[in-house]
């Protein structure tokens, strides 16, 4: 009889769960927000529901059930680290979810190929990465691919595109701030403690735009509020964050990057079936393929840099160091969404700072993971 490699099977199972949850959260968010379907066109409200639910669950896990212990958080640390990270996290989910009102899921996923470009630009501006010609050429290739894909979009919408791109840059800045602020201060947050500290703060940041932009509209419109719809939606977003943590803990940045690419292709295909108006053209596919080539080449360069910096070490030492770094990256979580981003926060889910989230959704969740994790390694 053939021996079953249980750890390998478990790893693939976690990857499958991550792909299903990430895709599900993004499609679910689109269905809830779209005027053509559930018709709840209030993305800030949906994001606040996710943040409130995640924060409440984290509170009970830490304070009531004592699953994990809270970290030593001083007021100075909270104000200088958690608050700015939470602000940009809230912004990335807000803008990413708002984009669902204007553009298709397929086109949103194509725009998310810009995530490495945005992260690289922010990293150079903040001094955590250096400008290089080879990396710049890859970023240029990604940008050209996204432009071609946008040109081929049948239902191109300027407002929706601006929302999505703004959300991408907000997420990129959040990831860089996570590296600059949290990691340099030696503070690591696992998924539960990350939700515990960041979700309530993000919720508070969203209150002001909600009061100005959505509260008046909710008072005059006939809203359908189905408890089970919103509960299951928030539960899926929460589960996505935990699945990201499990995948990173068992694999690492490179594997989840590959899984993220696979997820994006699956999501693009599924969205065209579930949402008939989300048609894609040949130019869309060509542009996205070009952009992905740039992303893959960029990640190859980063991995090559890491390996070059580790060459003088013995193989056992290098393996031990890789294991420690991968474990460390799994401890740092400041969420897809997105949202699958964004994509869910993910879309509305807290995407782990996982590039160190991964993707909410967001979100290319994996490209985020890959960049921050690798840039930390190469130091």
From TrEMBL:
GO CC term (a single one): membrane
Top-rank taxon: Eukaryota
Keyword Oxidoreductase: no
UniProt entry keywords in alphabetical sequence: Membrane, Transmembrane, Transmembrane helix
Subcellular location as annotated: Membrane
Region (Disordered): 327-379
InterPro entries, alphabetized: Sugar_P_trans_dom, TPT_transporter
Feature: compositional bias, Polar residues: 364-379
Sugar phosphate transporter domain: residues covered: 13-299
Keyword DNA damage: no
Transmembrane segments: 7-28, 40-65, 77-95, 101-123, 135-156, 162-182, 194-213, 225-247, 254-275, 281-301
Topology of this chain in the membrane: Multi-pass membrane protein
Protein name: SOLUTE CARRIER FAMILY 35
